[in-house]
Amino acid sequence: MPMHSWGPQDLSAHRRAPQLPQAPAETGTVVEETETGWTGAVVGLDHVHGVRSVRLEDRRGAVRTFPLGPGFLIDGEPVELIAPQPRTVRAAPRRTASGSFAVTGQRARAARASRIWVEGTHDAELVEKVWGDDLRAEGIVVEPLHGADDLRGAVAEFQPAPHRRLGVLLDHLVPGSKETRIAQEVMSQPGARGNVLILGHPYVDVWQAVKPERVGLEEWPRIPRGTDIKVGTLRALGLPHSSQRDIAHGWKQILGRVRSYVDLEPTLLGRVEELIDFVTV
């Protein structure tokens, strides 16, 4: 007769229950509780005295609560009901002041040969505040002209070409204005067509491209001919206006009210966007 050992043995393998698949108790999941036969949709979870429970609502609207764990069926298959993992809420993509999507971690691109010129320092500061992120991402430098009178000579010196495009933003570019005549002369120069784009807004000064309600006005004041528009504007706003320092301080206050593209007039927005597209081709 073969000898059998009846001493201590590990019987855990025989006692171990089969592993049940785990199912999160997501709202709306239809579950059957096996002991009572109660069937209902998950409508919520409770946490009472350290015990996590699930609330099941049947088709008549009655609700019963059962402890989470084994003892449930989903589609006839036994499961261990567990609490669902917290959902991760994705942060909305950040937008730049110009309204474009910001690229996280992007470094400024090396400057292109192409340029955007604007009439003065205030124009450049406004463009930088709203489009600065976009311009750095594209490697575009904005330079102030300090007046458009010598634009023709400046363009000739720049020597625009297909790889070296030039976009120019002028104030008061309206029919019959000095700026319109200058633009026409520039575009007649050799090499300008296709490589130079001159656009502008209808305002005498870029200050007026800021929506007037941002500075507490219904509309920008009409400054009589012969009066410096910046001086007249600051006077109308009740701000100091007797010196260049006053003008610089007044502009800083106006610029400080600009938060993003929504604070600028569409007649400026479209022109700047078009210039950026032109020099980044």
Give the strand order of the largest sheet, numbering strands 1, 2, ... along the chain: 1-7-6-2-3-4-5
Backbone shape: elongated
Average per-residue pLDDT, rounded, comes to: 88
Can you tell me the CATH architecture of the domain at 115-210 and 258-279? 3-Layer(aba) Sandwich
Low-pLDDT stretches: 3-7
Helical stretch count?
7
Q: Could you describe the largest sheet, including whether it forms a barrel?
A: 7 strands, mixed
Euclidean distance between termini CA atoms: 95 Å
* H/E topology pattern: HEEEEEEEEHEHEHEHHH
Number of beta-strand segments = 11
Proportion of residues in extended strands: 15-25%
> Which radius of gyration do the C-alpha atoms yield?
35 Å
Assembly annotation: single chain
Helix content: 25-40%
Structural class: alpha/beta
User: Which CATH class of the domain at 115-210 and 258-279 is shown?
Assistant: Alpha Beta
What is the CATH third-level topology name of the domain at 115-210 and 258-279?
A: Rossmann fold
